[in-house]
Amino acid sequence: MDKTNESTVSVTVSAPPSSATWEETWTNVGAPAFFGLLVGAVWQVQVQPHLPYPMPNPIHAALLLFLLLSPVFHRWLTPHDGSRWKEYLAGVAVLGLFFGGVWTTGFGALICGGYVAIVVWIWISTSWWRFHLPPFRYALWHTLGVNIGALGGSILAFNLFG
């Protein structure tokens, strides 16, 4: 038997990381929530008092602006090639339209758009950083952060300046 054609392959399996880096945390949790917080607070103080109806509210404004700027956020917040921005846009649109509808109805909006969304966002933020996600899933994660940030920013601004 000829043993000259045999080769050895060495495979190294590394354990998954035990925690996210600060950069990953800022990119996927902090930046979207901070964007939502800023837009929600500014809308609550500068625009909401001048509207004849309570719509669009600060969360609507943050989600819409995030949708419009989603190609830019895709470039800043995801490790993917810039040509995949449409997948990111689709994720922002799907969840943004859902939350826009939830916040428009007023029926259970704080429960579904606030409390349940916070629980889901915390769960995602503590688990999804371990994976290499497609742009669509990053968009879902980031849109949840914008939603929660806008809610928090509008409540904070209302309490401080309202």
The stretches of 5 or more residues where confidence is low (pLDDT under 50) are: none
Strand-residue fraction? under 5%
| Mean pLDDT over the residues | 90
Domain module count: 1
Cα-based radius of gyration, to the nearest Å = 20 Å
Q: Please report the distance between the alpha carbons of the first and last residues.
A: 86 Å
Total strands: the figure is 0
**What is the 3D shape?**
elongated
SSE run: HHHHHH
Number of helices: 6
What is the SS-derived class? mainly alpha
Biggest beta-sheet profile: none
Which range best describes the helical content: under 10%, 10-25%, 25-40%, 40-55%, 55-70% or over 70%? Answer: 55-70%
Give an overview of the whole structure.
It is a single chain. This protein is an all-alpha fold and about 160 residues long. The chain has one domain. It contains 6 helices and no strands. Helix 5 packs across helix 6. The longest helix is centred in the last third of the chain and has 27 residues. The radius of gyration is 20 Å and the shape is elongated. The N and C termini lie far apart (about 85 Å). The relative contact order is 0.20.
Fold blueprint:
Layout (H helix, E strand, L loop, with lengths): L21 H26 L10 H11 L1 H8 L7 H21 L3 H19 L7 H27 L1
Give a quick set of tags describing it.
162 residues, mainly alpha
Brief description of this entry?
The chain has 162 residues and is mainly α. It has helices at residues 22-47, 58-68, 70-77, 85-105, 109-127, 135-161. The protein is 69% helix and 0% strand.
